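Escalated from tier 1: magnesium ion holo job.
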Amino acid sequence: MTSGPTMISLDKIHKSYGALEVLKGVSLGIRAGERVVLCGPSGSGKSTLIRCINGLETRTSGQILVNGHELHPNCENIADLNGEVGMVFQQFNLFPHLTVLQNLMLAPRIVRGTPAEVVRTQAMRLLERVKIADKANAYPGQLSGGQQQRVAIARALCMQPKVMLFDEPTSALDPEMVKEVLDVMIDLAREGMTMIVVTHEMGFARTVADRVIFMDGGVIVEEDAPASFFSRPKHPRTKEFLRQVYEHSH
Ligand SMILES: Nc1ncnc2c1ncn2[C@@H]1O[C@H](COP(=O)(O)OP(=O)(O)OP(=O)(O)O)[C@@H](O)[C@H]1O
Ligand SMILES: [Mg+2]
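Tier 2 regenerated the structure:
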């Protein structure tokens, strides 16, 4: 599966905020069906990188291809690509004034113009898949964090994306809710979704990732299959990072 065609191609991505250069030439190819975990210290540029991929940030230079289509430098063609890349955030970002079902139906209805009944059927199927169909008519504020995050995943899937990006999807959750969200992500991975996941859940990285990428200071410092990444990190900065992650989790 991971020898499939290239789904995402990043070539020498640079990003600056004023004088601060946050991404310093990141090149990366991700194949269809590949599951990549992106980790690194705070401020290393992980969120900025994945926000560039789905057009939430404009890059300063470099080329981005999603499923063979170039994302224009100022993201003016993002509407054409928006459906291809789904995104899940740390803070869920559900619309508080819409029900769960309405949250799922909004983008397919407005962006795609898909008929309501078609979208509703698909949305309900996705809510069943993330095991929360019984909350279809509830509002986000009536749900736990873990439930809200599962709704956010279903909402992203409702656009039938080819790639899913996750930015620390479990780090705002109470510990007892982490597993229910990781289980949904594991399920998605098993079905062959191409995924880039920013996370410090190293158990998830070990069991689900095909590749772990470690960023520091706006560059990719090291990348490897999880088995060797965790047992034989090469770069001193990777070793230091792993040591700190383990200290926090034990
Ligand atoms: N909109 C912005 N304007 C100015 N600086 C920004 C902006 N967004 C991010 N930065 C800076 O860019 C750098 C990288 O931020 P980014 O959020 O990509 O890091 P990160 O690796 O995701 O960190 P964390 O693990 O804390 O989420 C940081 O120094 C941050 O302060
Ligand atoms: Mg971040």
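Strands lie at 6-17, 20-31, 35-39, 61-66, 69-70, 85-88, 163-167, 194-198, 211-216, 219-224.
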